[in-house]
Amino acid sequence: MKKRIFYSIFLVTTVVLLAAFIIIMMVMYNQFTTEQLEQLRNEMKLVKRGVALEGEEYFKGLTTTDFRITWIDSDGEILYENKADPYSMQNHLEREEVQKAIKEGYGESKRYSSTLSEQQLFIAEKLEDDTILRLSTTMASIWSLFLRFSVFPITIFVLALAASLAFASRLSKNIVDPLISLDLDDPLSGRTSSYEELYPLLQRLQFQHDQIEKDRKELEKTSLIRQEFTANASHELKTPLHVISGYAELLENGLIKEEEIPGFAKKIGDETRRMTKLADDILNLSKLDSGATDMRREKLDLYAFAAQTIDDLSSIIDENDTDIRLEGDHVSIEGIPESVNSIIFNLVTNAIKYSGQGGKVTVSVREDGDNAVLEVEDNGIGIGEEDLERIFERFYRVDKSRSKELGGTGLGLSIVKHAARIHDAQVKVKSRLGEGSVFTVIFPKA
Ligand code: ADP
May I ask the CATH architecture of the domain 296-444? Predict the structure, then answer.
């Protein structure tokens, strides 16, 4: 980068200096030629007056002059010539300036003189006796002008080059150093942020850095939750296994009386069902965790779904003698049937379980603007304020032994939360200890 900055500055300096030099040379050349013509005209006035006064005699007295003087009579014969041999010269009546002088009294021309092998400036004037007086001078070529005046510009050029070298090196250092010192962990700090042009880039870097940091923390949190979950799940699975193996041992060793066997067999059956439910819930959660991308969504009538779930739960409703009601309208949502079913199933089961014998449960489905709202209300034990925030955590139970007694796994509400999330639905809970709870799920309408 330093090299590129240096070359750019160097190139610009060279081009500017060269252009300035060429322009100056052209202006000077123009000025020089104008002055030469002026001098030639003045000399013409002098020579003309001299010839008018003294005739041919005038030239005899004329010893030193920078100009070439040619005097031609009206037939083209050379009467006087001071720089070349008159006999070797061609007829000069043909020359452009002479022709003009014959016709108009005065003529000028610029040309390469074959006689003197130089670029010449000519002026000719017709005298009163019809003879032609012609004066000429060698024009300074642009090259000779260049040689004469180039020392100064070349000195400037070399000095400017040296200055641009020093400047370019300093400038490129000033530009590049802050970039090198850029702290990628904290892009907005340090000298680099003083570059207005770089600010959007630095801001973006900072944003990406923050994002990566956030993702990293999120990942750490997720991995911690996973570890905790695995430990909890193993523990939860081990407990019923211990109970089952304990009972099996007692049976094996004949330590249980004949009449107690059916009771123990029921206990083994209960623990086995709990384990199966636990395994089902864990599988369900891990499916939801991975985003349930392979599960098909379809248009579902939320009311019909609730009715079906209540129907499926008829045995536990009867067992608990629950007064259950379904109210509301038919509202459709776009959903995954299994997941919507687990939401309703878990909420209604909890409402039945935690409202005890003869509890009152109301399930309602209604439309609210762009939403379909499912509400499950019970008049059960309720949840204390300090537990409300935690009940959606995996394996969190307000009263562990009560939950177990009721066949709970501690994963139901966690499944509800995840299933709601993949439907872009919101879950809310309102509860008061001893009075009952209301769980609300707000789905976007189909
Ligand atoms: P569980 O299998 O223990 O019911 P959940 O995840 O479904 O697990 O619920 C977590 C805890 O939240 C329950 O153990 C219970 O303490 C509390 N809970 C859930 N629903 C209700 C409710 N309707 N009434 C009172 N407490 C509830």
Answer: 2-Layer Sandwich (3.30)
Residue 429 near residue 442, CB atoms below 8 Å = no
In this structure, which residue's CA is closest to atom 8 in ligand 1?
A: 410
Say if residues 346 and 412 touch (Cβ distance below 8 Å).
yes
| Per-residue pLDDT tens digits for 132-170 | 999 998 886 767 777 777 788 788 878 877 887 788 788
CA-based torsion, 29, 33, 39, 40: positive or negative: positive
Tell me how far the alpha carbon of residue 167 is from its chain's centroid: 32
Amino acid code (one letter) for 111: R
Tell me the sheet residues that pair with 328.
365
Q: How much is the pLDDT for 429?
A: 97
300 Cα–ligand 1 center, Å: 26
- How far does the centroid of ligand 1 lie from the alpha carbon of residue 375, in Å? 16
CATH class of 195-290: mainly alpha
For the chain, what are the domain ranges? 2-148, 195-290, 296-444
Angle subtended at Cα 224 by Cα 219 and Cα 230, rounded to the nearest 5 degrees: 125
Residue 410 beta carbon below 6 angstroms from any ligand 1 atom: yes
Instruction: Share the mean pLDDT of the chain.
Output: 89
Asked if the domains at 2-148 and 296-444 fall in one CATH topology, the answer is no
**Ligand 1 pocket, 418 CB below 6 A?**
no
Torsion of CA 197, 199, 202, 207, to 10 degrees: -140
pTM: 0.60
* Angle value at C-alpha 64, between 59 and 66, nearest 5 degrees: 105
| 290 — pLDDT class (breaks 50, 70, 90) | confident
Closest CA to 374 of 317, 292, 444, 273: 444
Atom nearest to 399 CA in ligand 1: 16
Q: What are phi and psi of 355, to 5 degrees?
A: -110, 0
Q: Which class for 401: exposed (0-12), middle (13-18), buried (19 or more C-beta within 10 A)?
A: exposed
CA 368 to chain centroid = 41
Q: If one looks up domain 2-148 in CATH, what number appears?
A: 3.30.450.20
CB-based contacts of 210, cutoff 8 Å, min separation 6: none
Atom of ligand 1 lying closest to residue 376 CA:
23
